[in-house]
Amino acid sequence: MTTDVTTAAGRGTVRRLAGSLHRRPRLRLALLLTAPLLWLTVLYLGSLAVLFVSAFWTTDSFTSQVVKVWSTDNFHELLTTPVFRQVVLRSVGVALAVTVLCALIAFPVAFYTARVARPRWRPLLVVAILTPLWASYLVKVYAWRLILSEGGLADWALAPFGLSGPGFGLAATVLTLTYLWLPYMILPIHTALEQLPDNLLDASADLGARAGRTFRSVVLPMVLPSVAAGSVFTFSLSLGDYITVQIVGGKTQLVGNLVYSNIELNLPMAAALGLVPVLVIVLYLLAIRRTGALNSL
Amino acid sequence: MRPTRTLRAAACAAALLLAAACDSSGSGGSSAGGLNPPDLKAPTKLGRTEGQVNLIAWAGYVEDGSNDPKVNWVTDFEKQTGCQVHSKVAASSDEMVKLMKTGEYDAVSASGDASLRLIASGDAAPVNTALVPHYKDIFSGLKNGPWNSVKGRMYGIPHGRGANLLMYNTQKVRPAPTSWSAVFDGAPAHKGHVTAYDSPIYIADAALYLRATKPELKIKDPYALDQKQFDAAVALLKQQNANVGEYWSDYLKEVSAFKSGDSVVGTTWQVIAGLAASEGAKVKTLVPKEGSTGWSDTWMVSSKAKHPNCAYKWLDWIVSPKVNAQVAEYFGEAPANSKACAETSDKNFCTVYHAADESYWKKIAFWNTPIEQCLDGRTDVKCVPYAKWVQAWTEIKG
After folding, report:
1. Mean per-residue pLDDT, B224-253
2. A13 with A111, same domain?
3. Which of A122, A284, B42, B245 could be joined to B128 by an S-S link, Cβ 3.0–4.6 Å?
4. Inside any domain, residue A181
5. B108-154 pLDDT, tens digit each
6. How far apart are the C-alpha atoms of B50 and B313, rounded to whole Å?
7. Which pTM was predicted?
8. B98 reaches A (C-beta below 8 A)
9. Would you indicate the residue range of the signal peptide (chain B) (predicted)?
10. For residue A124, how many C-alpha atoms fall within 13 Å in the half-sphere facing its CB?
11. What is the pLDDT of residues B60-110, one digit of tens each?
12. What is the pLDDT of residue A293?
């Protein structure tokens, strides 16, 4: 008996609550958005703000304790120390190289999976492209370390041509990162090519355009936003990476390594260094926005 | 070869005199020459154990069987003392310092590049060695070192030690090297295949080499470098960088590099050499004629320890012969307890690691924290502090 009463009462409360929510659309919206907005502002933007603010602090040189005294020394050092400039330029260069390589490799692959392969094979091919993403990042990078090491697979395969592998270093880093992020480039291009209407290609052919012309004037403009979208992934993931370069990069340092080596002893400097990729990526996104690629993300 | 130990002892004595002078004049700060840590008291007797203890340790120092069921020296400790062990593995000396500052931990296995910082900041308390019965069996070479004691007061219990050796590929590096010049002046012979330890403390290795080869720099202690000496060491390392294939910090990475031949000569630890040789790499190690740098870990008690009695029990346990032998063999270092050698499963272990060979350890300059007040006792110049070493290391790698 009592349980019946309480459930009835409970049902009554729920119904009244639902009713009041129904009458107040603004309250409904507020309840719906509070959690994600809190996540975005407090946790995401908030931590970025903390990062920004702590870049203006300094540390005690002996105990490495953060001293909360406002100064722009870290930024001054960042801009005037040659090694920092060199490393930042190198990192951006690596990210750009990886992006270009990914785009060059991804295009033909995506063209095959989206338009040339038989339709019933296409989903399987997409799965095949995605499978490397299921394997651990570290396993893949260590596999590349073995491939590129002295007398490894790369040396063996190139030996008949009188060449040797690139060894550990900048080239190895670019190569490995390209491998790691390639699926992120193939997928958006695949989607764009898949959605390309056949009749546009037919129309182009009817109007007398050869394959090259059709590619330049019809396919490329329609797929370019997707390439740009893919490049956002490859660029930002490469810019932030510091583990691959430790494993296959030989003695190469990227921005991530500098942040990592400063984080324990000089947190403010690490924060200042950490702002560099953030800034670069914001600039990159602004540039990409002009291509309209962000609308098709 | 130089009488390192004597020099260091003399340097220490000078520093101590100076510190004592500072004391008598009543200045309490650490600004005036020599290290003058906060005056903390060590306990005079132990009370009841608190039921638990929180430790910060290097990987492999506090094993409770969860990594390998056969490697376990924590469970017996818990059974005997009733102290539940909670351990946190730290990846670097800097992380250890940071964790100790939280005050949530009772003890830490600090290396020399962290211990002095902990002492100076008052995070580590002096240890009453009389309350650690096994302390009497510790090798004398590890007691009252400049990295674990101040003014003759011990700030911890030595755990073990190891040297940074020169390792080379016996097929690619001929004739066999006898000097660190193999990785410095002679490095171009193996361009792209030289390796070095990836840490700012490696600058001391260059200073150690310069101490022997450039007497005009008057380097006494590789951890006490004035600006001129420091610049010379950094210049040497920048030269070396052109010939370096990769730097290593993860020891499995070095094992694989020596196995494949990507690295043929460079610094190493005994445990890496053993591992590489057992996996088929043709390598040999030596302490070159200039001597070498090395590390010695010390278990220190936090000044804010909430479980000091359990912490003391742990200090005694970890240097007891059987456990010390177990840790040393598992981690690959020379044990601190002289009686541990009788307990190792490999009877040859202590010979390979030179555990009891004090003349061997005399050649080793153990890691220490470079600070502004020169550790070698000079007062007419300021030495380059560790924070600057970190910056320089970034520049060396370019």
Report:
1. 92
2. no
3. B42
4. yes
5. 999 888 888 888 888 999 999 999 999 999 998 899 988 888 888 89
6. 11
7. 0.80
8. yes
9. 1-32
10. 5
11. 899 898 888 888 999 999 999 999 999 998 888 888 888 998 889 999 999
12. 65
Please check whether residues A124 and A15 belong to one and the same domain: no
Please report which residue ranges of A207-243 form alpha helices under DSSP H: 211-214, 220-240
Q: Give the contacts of B92 (CB within 8 A, at least 6 positions apart).
A: A264
Set of chain B residues whose Cβ sits within 8 Å of the Cβ of A249: 246
- Residue-wise pLDDT for B12-60, tens only, equals 344 433 333 333 333 333 333 457 778 888 888 888 889 999 999 988 8
Dump the DSSP string for B49-62: --SEEEEEE-TTSS
Mean pLDDT of A5-23: 77
Q: Based on the domain organization, do A80 and A47 belong to the same domain?
A: no
Which CATH code of 3.40.630.30, 3.40.50.2300, 3.30.2350.10, 3.40.190.10 fits the domain covering B4-162+295-352?
Answer: 3.40.190.10
A43 and A94 co-located in one domain: no
**Side-chain half-sphere CA neighbours of A32 within 13 A:** 7
> What is the spatial distance between Cα B48 and Cα A157, in angstroms, rounded to a whole number?
68
Does residue B197 belong to the interface with chain A, where contact is any CB pair within 8 Å?
no
A270 touches chain B (CB under 8 A): no
The residues that bridge with B267 in the sheet, in sequence order, are B166
d(CA B246, CA B257): 9
Domain span at residue A228 reads 76-296
Angstrom CA distances, A117 to A114, A121, A204, B217, stand at 7, 6, 22, 71
Mean pLDDT along residues A261-274: 86
Query: Which residues of chain B form CATH 3.40.190.10?
Result: 4-162+295-352, 163-293+371-397
Question: With a CB-CB cutoff of 8 Å, which residues 212-251 of chain B face chain A?
Answer: 241, 244-247, 250
| Chain A residues touching B385 at Cβ < 8 A | 61-62
| Judgement on whether residues A226 and A265 belong to the same structural domain of the protein | yes
Residue B356 near chain A (CB below 8 Å): no
Residue B45, burial from CB neighbour count under 10 angstroms (0-12, 13-18, 19+): exposed
Q: What's the pLDDT at B21?
A: 36
Fold of the domain built from segment(s) B163-293+371-397: D-Maltodextrin-Binding Protein; domain 2 (3.40.190)
- Separation CA A107–CA A109 (nearest Å): 5
Q: Reply yes or no on whether the pLDDT at A69 is more than 60.
A: yes
What interface predicted TM-score (ipTM) does this complex get? 0.76
- How confident is residue A296, by pLDDT bands cut at 50, 70 and 90? low
A212 and A290 in a single domain? The answer is: yes
Predicted local distance difference test score (pLDDT) of residue B32: 33
Residue B70 sits at φ, ψ, to 5 deg, of -85, -15
Question: In this predicted structure, what is the pLDDT of residue B34?
Answer: 58
Q: Give the pLDDT confidence score for residue B285 in this predicted structure.
A: 92
